[in-house]
């Protein structure tokens, strides 16, 4: 398997890969973008015009989505999964993931939309970095953009599985996004 297929392993060890860009036998390009960040590009002939950002580990103790992304990345690296979209995989808070805690000093989820500028510390810097990675990834024009931020309920819930969908008055939901 390609070394970049082991992004979770690299992230938890705090290591950089020796090769920052690798190609699968299917022609899928995998590019390390920084700690816990991997861009996957299908061959141009298979690209369906979608940019998909998948993030997990914003809370380091929510391990199920982290494991899910790890398996998706490994499946792509092995050639078992052949993506048709550009994908940016992000492990949000590597320090908290390494410690197995929700966060170290601050909840990264509360530091987005520029709120990191009113704060300090490693998690504020990480929120800024994640915003820049997302903005750069979504900068290509004329592409369909999706971002799924995966979490796990850490307390008991009456609803076993659920998703939160952004709601705006008067806007129809997109079946494609669901």
TrEMBL record:
Cofactor names: Zn(2+)
InterPro entries registered for this protein in UniProt: AspA/AstE_fam, AstE_AspA_cat
Any one GO MF annotation of this record: hydrolase activity, acting on ester bonds
Database matches in Pfam families: AstE_AspA_cat (PF24827)
SUPFAM superfamilies named in the record: Zn-dependent exopeptidases
Ranges where the Succinylglutamate desuccinylase/Aspartoacylase catalytic domain occurs: 49-175
This protein's name: Succinylglutamate desuccinylase
Keywords (A to Z) from UniProt: Hydrolase, Metal-binding, Zinc
Source organism per UniProt: Pseudomonas amygdali pv. eriobotryae
């Amino acid at each position: 398997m390609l070394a970049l297929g082991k992004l979770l392993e690299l992230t938890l060890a705090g290591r950089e890969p020796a090769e920052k860009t690798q190609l699968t036998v299917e022609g899928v390009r995998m590019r390390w973008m920084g700690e816990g960040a991997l861009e996957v590009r299908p061959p141009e002939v298979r690209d369906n015009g979608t940019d998909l950002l998948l993030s997990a580990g914003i809370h380091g103790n929510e391990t199920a989505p982290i494991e899910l992304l790890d398996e998706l990345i490994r499946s792509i690296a092995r050639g078992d999964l052949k993506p048709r979209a550009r994908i940016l995989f992000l492990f949000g808070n590597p320090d908290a993931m390494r410690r197995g805690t929700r966060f170290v000093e601050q909840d990264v989820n509360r530091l987005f939309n520029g709120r990191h500028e009113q704060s300090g510390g490693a998690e504020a810097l990480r929120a800024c970095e994640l915003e820049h990675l997302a903005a750069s990834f979504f900068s290509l024009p004329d592409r369909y953009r999706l971002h799924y931020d995966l979490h796990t309920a850490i307390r008991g819930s009456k609803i076993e599985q659920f998703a939160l969908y952004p709601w705006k008055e008067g806007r129809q939901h997109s079946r494609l996004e669901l």
